[in-house]
């Protein structure tokens, strides 16, 4: 998020605790479990597809989008994200919520 703010990239972040998720078509739990992106055409993407859309917009990470779109790497990345990374990040977030370690990022604080 800091990279986006510092480089004036046209990406908006939604706070899951203060956002109406109905337009996204996902539940609170689903939103917490996977990265979701709404494209300029209001298409909702999640997982590796969401990362690819974000990386495409960030000059420093554009090469990752190119790499992640390669068929074999896309399949591997999807399985890695779905079966290991997303569940681990969700679990970490649940622990942080349980013990009160969630701190909202404010661009003005940087």
Write the layout of secondary structure elements.
Blueprint: H1 2-6, H2 28-33, E1 36-38, E2 44-46, H3 48-57, H4 62-68, H5 71-98
Antiparallel strand pairs: 1-2
Can you offer a commentary on this structure?
The protein is mainly alpha-helical. The protein is built from five helices and two strands, in the order ααββααα. It has helices spanning 2-6, 28-33, 48-57, 62-68, 71-98, and strands at 36-38, 44-46. α3 packs antiparallel against α4. The longest helix is centred in the C-terminal third of the chain and has 28 residues, at 71-98. The radius of gyration is 15 Å and the shape is globular.
Largest sheet: 2 strands, antiparallel
Q: How much of the sequence is in beta strands?
A: 5-15%
Radius of gyration, in Å, reads 15 Å
What is the total tally of β strands?
A: 2
Give the H and E element order. HHEEHHH
The global form is globular
Query: From the structure provided, what is the oligomeric state, counting identical versus distinct chains?
Result: single chain
Going across the major beta sheet, what is the strand order? 1-2
Question: Could you list the spans in which at least 5 consecutive residues all have pLDDT below 50?
Answer: 105-110
* Overall mean confidence score, pLDDT: 81
The number of helical runs is 5
Helix content: 40-55%
What's the end-to-end separation, in Å?
Answer: 11 Å
Q: What structural class results from the helix and strand content?
A: mainly alpha
């Amino acid at each position: 998020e800091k990279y986006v703010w510092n480089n004036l990239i046209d990406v908006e972040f939604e706070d899951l605790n203060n956002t109406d998720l109905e337009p996204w078509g996902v539940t609170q739990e689903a939103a917490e479990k996977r990265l979701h992106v709404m494209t300029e055409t209001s298409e909702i993407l999640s997982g590796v597809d969401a990362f690819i859309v974000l990386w495409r917009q960030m000059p420093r990470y554009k090469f990752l989008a190119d790499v992640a779109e390669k068929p074999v790497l896309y399949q591997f990345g999807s399985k890695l994200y779905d079966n290991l990374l997303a569940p681990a990040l969700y679990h970490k977030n649940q622990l942080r919520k349980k013990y009160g370690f969630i701190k909202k990022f404010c661009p003005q604080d940087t």
